[in-house]
Amino acid sequence: MSRLFLARHGETDWNARGKLQGHTDIPLNDSGRAQARALAARLEQQQISSVTTSDLIRAGETGAIVARELGVASVHTDHELRERRFGVFEGLTREECASRYPEAWRAWVEQTAPPEGAEPRELAIPRLTRALTRALDRAAGAPSLVVSHGGVMRLWLIETTGAPVPLIGNAAVYVVERVDGTFHVTLWGA
Prior knowledge:
Layout: E1 2-8, H1 13-17, H2 30-43, E2 50-53, H3 57-70, E3 74-77, H4 94-100, H5 102-111, H6 121-139, E4 144-148, H7 150-161, E5 173-179, E6 182-187
Helix pairs in contact: 2-3, 4-5, 6-7
């Protein structure tokens, strides 16, 4: 059995304002840096051997803080861990999305259907699966941390568990285990 901890990055100013970030490269704010330090403290007893993050700065910064706090030298970047593109929603708040694109917003909320210019779930889910598989293979059975993004994580979790998944908070953590090639997921600390 292989195990990793899949975490969403810490808070950014856009998160605090409710803006959808997508591929827009926004750094952590002070709250997000504190969340990353708190994440490291939560993981302290887990013997994390490596950290892998998306190539967006908010995930990279979260992972770097955790690695530094835990003394983990093995840090990797994987562009397939990046958030999905949000198309016309990117940079807008949820209220702005609902006001400007009511039909597309309703489809997004009810079915996670991508708006114009967004990455479809059919591409996002396999992309995250490939990245998580690489991280698990690299860790060779040792616990590792993967830092990604709420939107793509939520799609993957819905697909993997077959159950509804609420919006994922900053620095929330899921335990992902692979047994005989099958992923099993639980919310850590729940």
